[in-house]
Each structure stands twice: as structure tokens, then as C-alpha cells.
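Backbone-to-sequence.
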């Protein structure tokens, strides 16, 4: 028997056909076309599922899992709000897929689903208490307590990106000020780099983008670090410090064994993880900060779709 996992992103829809051991049999990717509205996005997801099934009939599928980027209510099968997709209030999701495929369909937030993927098939295998933080366009996290995903009272536990790290910080689109994701997401890192350059700091980063500062990304910062650029190294260190405050708070509250760092920014690897480990050890309570391991996600950009498959397995008692 097979499972289908779908990772819905603001730009792409990634779909995997998996066996019940978590092995990917086939994968497909298509454009989300978020600007065309929820109906079109869900039709694209359905087309992508048919595409990944190939000549395998729907009878060979035990269930479909969906990772949705926003606030969700999985029991009701609705997406409450998804800013990156431009989805407003209460979009019904599961009904559409259940009617089309007539198999069990499950959904959850994309980062929570990616956390399930890492827990069962990635860096978190065999670990019962962990946090998985993704640093992408935004910042999110999932929490595994005693082997189970912790969902909170209204299914949205883990919104670390909107916890406050600066009392009078920048205004966030969530309405709060000084949210973590404004500083350590890919977009936040790039914005800080631009601001430092505009205030007159010398850096190779300006040359790397042909002096067009709008082209600076977190990857530019990473490349400049490799070239020994002092400002880029400072920005990476500062990123680790700000993220370290949030991670140390998490560590003190939940006492996890493992913190997994995923998302596009995590690809910089040790340039971020080495100072991050140092700041967490400094700020978390002594033994908690010393014993927690901080590692990179293993599944890369597949954690979402593999996790969506794991969501089906979890709901069907297969894992
Ligand atoms: Zn916020």
C-alpha cells in the first residue's frame, strides 16, 4: 500500500508517493499559482497528486496528507488563515480532496508536518523530545513531546517566529512588534544586511550583487562569510545570537534532547550552528543548555512532503 504526501508552499506544490516505510517512490513539483485563489491552488494540488500516482490506481492509496502554510483546524479540515497564499478566513480544504479521491485525507500546518517528517525519517529518529525550527521566508517550529507532536489547545502550538525578541522592535504583519522572524528568517537576514550596508559599512556583499542591494539574500551573506567578509561574519553571529535567545527560552521551558534547524537558511550549516550552540549554552540554564544537541535537518526540502505522508501513517496507526 502507498501514501501520498503534499507540501503546499507559497511558490511550489511538492508531492510524494511513498511506501509505508517512508521511502519515496515518486515525486512531482508544480507551481502553486497562489495569485489565482484557493480553488485553483487546490486544483493544482489534485492534478499533482494524479501526476505522482502515475499508473497506480487510487485503490492502492491508504490516505493523503496535506501540509498547509498557515493557521489550521485539522479536525474541521479548514485553513483559518494563510498569509503567504493570500487565503482569508476559513477555507475548507479536506472536503475537496476527500470528495475527489474517496480515501482518508489529513492536514496540518506545514512546519508541524515537516517536524513529523524529521522525527520519523530524518534527524529526529529515535528521539522523543525535540523541537524542529524552520528558517525560511518565515520562521516556524514544531514540538515533539514524549514522541508525539504537541498541537496546543487550538492546533497551532509552535509559532516561535512570532515570539518577541525585541521589546520595541519592528512591526510584524501579525500585529506584534519585535517578532523573531523579522530578524532571523531569510528575508530578515537580507534586510539587516542591506541596512548595515546602507549605513556605510564596507563589505564584499555589495560587490557580490553588482551593487544592486535589492539582490542581497541570506545566501549572499553566507558567500561573503566564506570569503572572510567581516560584516557578513558579524551578521551571521548576530543571527545566531538572536535565534539563540529564542532557542534558549524553548530549551528552558521544554528541556528537549534535540533542536533541529531546517529551512533554506539552515543550508549555511556550521557558520550558523556553531555560534548558535555557543549562545544557547550561554543563555539556557546550565545543564539544559549543555546537554541539548543542535543539528541541521536531514530531509532538506523533502521534509514537508515526507512529513505529510508521516501524518497519514500517524493517523492510521502505522507509526
Ligand atoms: Zn509576528
Amino acid at each position: 500500500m502507498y501514501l501520498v504526501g503534499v507540501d503546499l508552499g507559497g511558490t511550489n506544490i511538492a508531492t510524494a508517493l511513498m511506501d509505508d516505510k517512508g521511502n519515496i517512490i515518486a515525486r512531482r513539483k508544480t507551481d502553486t499559482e497562489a495569485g489565482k485563489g484557493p480553488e485553483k491552488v487546490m486544483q493544482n494540488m489534485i492534478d499533482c497528486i494524479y501526476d505522482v500516482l502515475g499508473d497506480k490506481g487510487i485503490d492502492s492509496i491508504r490516505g493523503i496528507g496535506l501540509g498547509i502554510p498557515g493557521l489550521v483546524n485539522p479536525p474541521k479540515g479548514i485553513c483559518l488563515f494563510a498569509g503567504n497564499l493570500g487565503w482569508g478566513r476559513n477555507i475548507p480544504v479536506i472536503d475537496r480532496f476527500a470528495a475527489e479521491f474517496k480515501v482518508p485525507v489529513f492536514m496540518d500546518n506545514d512546519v508541524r508536518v515537516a517536524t513529523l517528517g524529521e522525527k520519523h525519517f530524518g534527524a529526529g529518529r529515535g528521539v522523543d523530545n525535540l523541537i524542529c525550527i524552520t528558517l525560511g521566508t518565515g520562521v516556524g517550529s514544531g514540538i515533539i513531546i514524549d514522541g508525539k507532536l504537541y498541537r496546543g489547545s487550538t492546533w497551532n502550538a509552535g509559532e516561535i517566529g512570532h515570539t518577541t525578541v525585541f521589546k520595541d522592535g519592528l512591526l510584524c504583519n501579525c500585529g506584534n512588534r519585535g517578532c523573531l522572524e523579522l530578524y532571523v528568517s531569510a528575508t530578515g537576514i537580507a534586510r539587516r544586511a542591506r541596512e548595515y550596508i546602507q549605513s556605510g559599512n564596507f563589505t564584499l556583499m555589495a560587490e557580490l550583487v553588482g551593487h544592486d542591494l535589492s539582490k542581497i539574500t541570506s545566501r549572499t551573506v553566507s558567500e561573503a562569510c566564506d570569503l572572510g567578509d567581516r560584516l557578513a561574519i558579524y551578521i551571521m553571529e548576530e543571527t545566531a545570537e538572536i535565534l539563540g535567545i529564542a532557542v534558549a527560552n524553548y530549551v528552558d521551558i521544554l528541556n528537549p534532547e534535540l533542536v533541529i534547524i531546517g529551512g533554506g537558511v539552515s543550508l549555511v550549516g556550521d557558520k550558523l550552528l556553531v555560534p548558535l550552540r555557543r549562545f544557547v549554552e550561554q543563555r539556557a540554564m546550565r545543564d539544559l543548555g549543555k546537554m541539548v544537541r543542535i543539528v541541521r535537518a536531514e530531509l532538506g526540502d523533502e521534509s514537508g512532503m515526507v512529513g505529510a505522508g508521516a501524518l497519514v501513517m500517524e493517523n492510521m496507526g502505522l507509526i
